[in-house]
Write a structure and sequence with these properties.
about 525 residues, alpha/beta, Aspartate Aminotransferase, domain 1, Aspartate Aminotransferase, domain 2, 2 domains, 13 strands, about 35% helix, globular, binds pyridoxal-5'-phosphate
Length: about 525
Amino acid sequence: MIRGAAATASRFAAGNLGRARASISASAPTFRSFSTAEKIPSFHQADGDDAPVPAAPECPPVVAPVNEFSGISAKAGTPSPWAVFDAWGINSMEGKMDPVDPEDMSRLESSAVAIPFNDEERSSLPNETEILSSYDRLLQHRSMVHFGYPYNLMFNHAELYDFMKYSINNLGDPFVPSNYGIHSRQFECAVIDFFARLWGMPKDEHWGYVTTCGTEGNLHGILLARERLPDGILYSSRETHYSIFKAARYYRMDAKSIPTLPTGEIDYGALEHEISQNMDRPVIMNVNIGTTVKGAVDSLDRILRILTTLGVPRERFHVHCDGALFAMMMPFVEYGPEISFKKPIDSIAVSGHKMLGCPMPCGVTIARKQHVKLVEQRIDYLNSVDTTIMGSRNGQAPLYMWYSLRKKGIEGIKQDVIHCMETARYLRDTLTTAGITCRLNDLSSTVVLERPVCDAFVKRWQLACEEDIAHVVVMPNITREKIDLFVDELNKVIEEKGRMKKRGTGSPLAALTSDSWGVGSFVQPEVGDFKSDAKK
Ligand SMILES: Cc1ncc(COP(=O)(O)O)c(C=O)c1O
């Protein structure tokens, strides 16, 4: 069985790599062999760990091979050399799709991966190489059918693998080298400079660092705000990522959760009212440059206008922008809002594993240099200053971010963004045509849809759900062909199991059908003669 799986893997390796190579320009660097990027597992047996597996229809066979990323830069998600083919895509699917091998799944159970205390215990376990190759196959399957989280899975950092042999640690401040010499500060500073420039920060006024994730950037941004305005109240919409209110909890700050419009944007009227009721306290404002679930972008300009209208002076307000996914996209959206330090804002945080596509969680936070002085402490042991949330800091992450930025360049990122926006519209239209309730915010690549009622389907496509809605975040690795497959399977699941009903008049699904999203064509839930209803 094991040998069978390995043989299958290498057979697919040969086919896939052959196709990939055919479409890569001669100047491209050596590729990691996407050795087992094989067929997408069939829906009904996707994973051994899924609870009751429904007798859902099999995925339809793929009629023709697809080559979306053909190397034509105008069409490709990015002209970066590794993305000229669909690394994790359905190019490699041939005919009927395979499930994940149960043998692989059994090698990954907790009893199989347990760490033995002695030789006797070890003798009953699969060896590490077997376990790791099963794990590799599982991750490849999962990468093919990932739709729910905003991670760009389209990358190739093979040129950097060699640096894993070093213990690269950027402990201390990025701009004040410590005595520890095995660092990547030069790359970290280049990444910081890039983002500061992208967001219009005047030269020499910026500070920043490569964080462990977007959450750390938010924790840092809100910390600076609290140090600057210790008596301030934190305002943020109730659809804000939990890390912002977590910061308020950690730092024991007063915080107000402001209602949202059906689209997910902050309710500007409610915000104005709330601030006007607390004019004796400074304002700490978190602006969502894309909410987690609906991808709604709060209008920075409108919020700044509210502060001006209410007469809040600059020294009594502090603005942090949580731009985990979208702060990197907005500068590339035609006629998009300008997210810029030319405006009276104080910090922006973004994740590095989202739009940019780094293989480990990471991020960047950029702030005005003068605010950072408020938290800075000289540490002799480091021969640097302590300005960051963490002590030891991952030195690999800046290298990966730097590499992605250098390879893609401004034009490459722009192509990625265009791909995401256009493909998101394709998903919305395909779902709508199929009669499935969904919405797509302007400025967003997050398609919100009625929550599929079948948990196994949700798990297979790794959808993020909230109450009665789910979402798909269209990233550079999502192609139209994958979308067709997704919608096809969803249709079959709906036919068999029915559709999600609104969980009350105020539920997210009810909001999805509100005219505030616009009155364009969308399909109401609980309308029509559905099979599931008929069965009852
Ligand atoms: C709007 C928003 N802010 C912050 C975060 C946290 O980012 P990270 O997962 O990188 O910590 C997320 C994550 O999805 C997010 O959507």
